[in-house]
Design goal:
Rossmann fold, three-stranded antiparallel sheet
């Protein structure tokens, strides 16, 4: 695990964009699982504005680690957010974009997207392998759309499962833990003081930390990076 702590969300965006550009430069094809949330929105804006002509976007294949069960034009759609803030602003064709179809029956789409990952991604250890999985973390320690009350989804055999938000009851489709931990690289983007308690508990391995899905992220490759701002990292040090 490597921690990179920056002043604010904008600086996190800048350094993650450079990291992503380096990854793309060194690879023939980059299969990436995207995350929703407020931090990726800032990151995507920065990447489109500052790296729109620097990165060879034709190399990148875009997938999602999770999606809300809403139509693609819905304000809560992770796909829409990514289209608005990144994909519509850079040289990407529709053949490079593999969205989770949140408007479909959730159980059917979970099976279909799991099959798509089996078809489109290379395999390692018999499991579909992303070059990069981008993750966020909620105030409750959830990641992708695996929440503490459904932490068993992390260990599911199926590539994708239907999850339920603990408060709203909204259904979501999420990849599972074996897909996340089989990735060549995993990067957390975590900002804001509301995340600092869970960051500290996970980093310090405090009692009960295993109850948070984010604590289960441990890729076989060993390539796990946490991009944090100072607010999120206030309970830890760079050497933790």
């Amino acid at each position: 695990m490597e921690k990179r702590i920056y002043t604010d969300k904008q600086e996190v965006a800048e350094h993650f964009a450079r990291y992503f550009a380096s990854l793309a430069q060194d690879s023939a094809v980059v299969h990436v699982a995207l995350s929703g949330g407020s931090t990726p929105k800032v990151v995507f804006d920065f990447m489109a504005e500052q790296f729109g002509t620097v990165i060879d976007w034709t190399k990148v294949r875009f997938y999602w680690g999770d999606e809300r069960c809403v139509p693609p034009d819905h304000v809560e759609s992770n796909y829409k957010m990514t289209m608005d803030h990144l994909l519509s602003k850079v040289a990407v064709s529709s053949t490079q974009v593999f969205r989770i179809k949140g408007e479909r029956d959730p159980e059917e789409e979970a099976k279909a997207y799991g099959a798509l990952l089996d078809t489109e991604l290379p395999k390692a250890n018999g499991i579909p392998q992303f070059d990069l999985v981008i993750l966020g973390m909620g105030d409750d320690g959830h990641t992708a759309s695996i929440f503490p009350h459904e932490i068993g989804l992390w260990h599911a055999d199926e590539n994708c499962k239907v999850a339920v938000h603990p408060d709203s009851g909204q259904r979501r489709i999420t990849i599972n833990g074996k897909i996340i931990n089989n990735a060549k690289n995993v990067a957390f983007l975590v900002t804001g003081s509301s995340k600092s308690e869970k960051v500290r508990e996970i980093m310090h391995r405090e009692a009960g930390f295993e109850a948070y899905p984010a604590a289960l992220v441990s890729p076989e490759s060993g390539n796990l990076l946490w991009f944090l701002d100072q607010d999120a990292a206030q309970g830890i040090s760079a050497s933790t």
